[in-house]
Amino acid sequence: MLKKAFTPIDNAPLILFRITFGLLIAAESIVAIFTGWVKKNLMEPTVSIPHIGFDFLVPLPGYGMYFYYILMGVLGIFIMLGYKYRFSLGSFTILWIGVYLMQKASYNNHYYLLILVCLIMLFLPANQYASLDVKKNPSLKSLTMPQWCSWIMIVQMAIVYFFATLAKFYPDWLDGTFTGILFSSLSNYPVLGSVFTENWFHIFIAYAGIFFDGLIIPALLWKKTRNIALIASLLFHLFNSITLQIGIFPYFALSFIVFFYSPETIRYLFFKKKPQLQLEDLNKSYTFSKALTYFFIPFFILQLILPIRHYFIKGDVLWTEEAHRLSWRMMLRQKNGITHFKVIDKNTKQELPYNIVEKLTRKQLSLVTSKPDGIWQMAQHIKKEFAKKGVTVSIFIDSKLSVNNKPYKTFIDPTVDFAEAEWNYFGHNDWILLYDKQGNLIEK
């Protein structure tokens, strides 16, 4: 097995993936400007809500974020063309991680997946054919790569799909409750609108999602089912793209399929001028890469740990949100929160008016009324805002939460002063109230 990992194979799949990957991230960056995403999420907000611990990352002033995204788009094109490949990819990775961390009101799992793939691609020889780097320096040219380069990509997607499958095994998914919520809002959709409201369709989508996520990797690996899996992937991802409008993720997911087909097939279909491998190419010797030991092994071990960490934290992750991110828990629930921040002057004991609606965007309001980290961060922002005025405050939270249109229940302990509360990065925050399966409050 280890020996096979270093067997030379045609590098056509990796080259094609680099081209597709560069095109997709360029599109993601430029389209974000023209759809107004950059303006709505990074320019209009007057309050910054980054990932906890990254308060120093704030959007650039003025039109700065437009230039930021234009630069990412240009770097994406450079990656596609294989121009100064590692510099371009490294620069894009830093910029993308920066924008990922500086806001979390608008979040998609493919933002995280992009980071992971960027990190992987930094270690892969994806610029050794059909690239401007090779044109400038012909000595870089190679027709082959070690087999492990393809395996790495397959393992990455296997992790994504496996944990996406596992996360769906909960009652509101299995009985079609959440898919019903998801598709009922599309009742005015042309032609299929009436179908989207039918219970049988909600059940079908729920189990189709489980079977697709659970079986797509094995089906792509097995030659006899590979073409069927390809067709299923096209139908599944294009349907999601059209109905759910989830950005580049469907096309990004499809781009990985090149690693499941034989390299010769990819070369024949997409690089007709690329020479076939000769005996000397197949006898090429690849030595053990330190990257496998020092980067990829810890990299994948961490990815296996992160999605299961919620099992070791008290409470239901669907309610608490603790350990929800970085776990491939994709499109699983709808949360509606009603939250009031009660601000008390510590000296006068009087309540001070504070209207979060006037200060936050719609997506930020959703974050700070239904997510515990958002609530905690908003409380810290309020505390700092009053501190600048020379006022020391206590902040108490009156929060009610509904998951998947279930009855509202008190979410946050109303007796806790959030001006003093701390955020637990690795465990349960005791100020999040917990309930048993019957909906009864669990005493601390």
Automatic annotation (TrEMBL):
Record's signal peptide: none
Pfam families membership: HTTM (PF05090), VKGC_lumenal_dom (PF22777)
Topological category with respect to the lipid bilayer: Multi-pass membrane protein
Domain HTTM-like: 6-265
Alphabetic keyword roster: Disulfide bond, Lyase, Membrane, Transmembrane, Transmembrane helix
Principal cellular location given in the protein's record: membrane
Any one cellular-component term (Gene Ontology): endomembrane system
GO molecular function terms listed in the Swiss-Prot or TrEMBL record: gamma-glutamyl carboxylase activity; vitamin binding
SMART domains: HTTM
Transmembrane segments annotated in the record for this chain: 12-38, 63-80, 109-127, 148-170, 200-221, 228-246, 252-270, 291-312
Claim: Transit peptide is one of the keywords in the record: no
Coiled coil: none
Localization in the cell: Endomembrane system
Designated name of the protein: HTTM domain-containing protein
Organism, scientific name: Flavobacterium piscinae
